[in-house]
Design brief:
alpha+beta; Thiol Ester Dehydrase, Chain A; six-stranded antiparallel beta sheet; 15% strand
Length: 355
């Protein structure tokens, strides 16, 4: 996808993945939750439950209840709830610990199922529904890792994190994250009602985009050797001897997405966001210097062994970023597809509906 330097990506998911105006959202949600809580407190629950379970038409009501329970993620506004929950949980209710640069490329795991309303005529999860799960997984990752920077940019007038390069003054406007594009490669089907996990991690970044890779895995097929978040230290891990267990035979799908950060109409360099979140170590010359605005990319880091989980200094971070750019470069090559549309200059086959 091509976009002007300070333009807006014209992608369907752009508006659906915005975390803009977050400060204005919290009071609205608080009032709504408070109103629902008061209404729930006023209801005579014992009488209501008894009427539901024993009154006329109970069989139909129970069947409908089971249908809703097993298909809740596909109901109206369920996607909105999942997004808002992920944002509020990491941004408001649970303060994520400061994990430092070592957490930058580590995955965030979320779990879900394939309900009947996501199943196609082959009795497998429909390919189109993978993208809704990706929205949720990326939101968990970004809201967790980038919480400090999101807060700073949402209140940029005071924090002065993002400045207008022409005036040197803080940029005015709401903070937003926009999805530029996403690609998903399908490997193995997900069966009806099957539980699966999404492992999302930062892959790399350049002067504009933050790239995220997501793996769709069967539930329990992979377990990390450790948890960086102290609250998960009691969750079962695995031994290092299982580190290369033929994942290509287990992965359901793999996706790559790219995010752009905005304050008002100004694009924020991903390194600025990562640095303010405490995920980048100090680097000589900084992370936004050089002709490509990704630091001095002429420095030789070929001696870094990425298979060895050693100290995450700036050279190791840069080596991992360059490794991710090998995949991102191929991903960006698909942007040329936009130029292949001819607008019907050479005719079309027909027009049919419904679409």
């Amino acid at each position: 996808m091509r976009a002007r330097p300070n333009g807006r990506p014209h992608d369907r998911a752009m508006s659906s993945t915005r975390i803009g105006g977050f400060a204005m959202t919290i009071p609205i949600i608080s009032v709504a939750v408070g109103s629902m809580g008061y209404a729930a407190w006023r209801i005579n629950w014992p009488a209501l439950v008894q009427s539901f379970l024993t009154g006329p038409g109970r069989t139909s009501r129970l069947l409908l209840l089971f249908f809703i329970i097993f298909n809740w993620k596909t109901l109206p506004f369920a996607w909105t709830y999942r997004i808002i929950y992920a944002m509020l949980y990491h941004m408001v209710f649970r303060k994520s610990p400061k994990l430092g640069p070592r957490a930058l490329f580590k995955p965030m795991i979320s779990e879900t199922k394939a309900p009947i309303l996501e199943i196609d005529y082959n009795l497998h999860k429909s390919n189109s529904t993978y993208f809704a799960d990706l929205d949720i997984s990326r939101t968990h990752l970004c809201a967790y890792l980038l919480r400090p920077a999101i807060r700073s940019m949402s209140n940029n007038a005071k924090t002065r994190l993002v400045k207008d390069p022409r005036t040197g003054e803080p940029v005015k406007g709401n903070f937003a994250i926009a999805l530029g594009s996403v690609m998903c490669s399908f490997k193995r089907e997900i069966s009806s009602f099957q539980s699966y996990e999404l492992w999302s991690r930062v892959a790399t970044w350049d002067r504009k985009w933050l790239y995220i890779i997501t793996y769709f895995m069967p539930k329990g097929a992979a377990r990390p050797t450790e948890w960086l978040d102290p609250r998960f230290r009691r969750v079962r891990t695995r031994d290092h001897k299982d580190a290369t267990s033929g994942w290509q035979k287990k992965i359901h799908a793999t996706a790559m997405s790219k995010y752009v950060f905005k304050v008002g109409r100004l694009t924020v360099h991903p390194a600025t966001v990562l640095s303010d979140s405490g995920l980048l170590p100090q680097r000589p010359g900084g992370w936004v210097s050089g002709p490509n605005q990704v630091g001095d990319d002429t420095v030789d880091v070929s001696d870094i062994n990425l298979a060895d989980d050693g100290e995450w200094d700036w050279r190791r971070i840069e080596a991992q970023r360059r490794e991710g750019m090998k995949l991102a470069a191929q991903f960006n090559a698909l942007d040329g597809l936009h130029d292949s549309f001819d607008g019907g200059n050479y005719g079309a086959i027909a027009r049919f509906g419904p679409g």
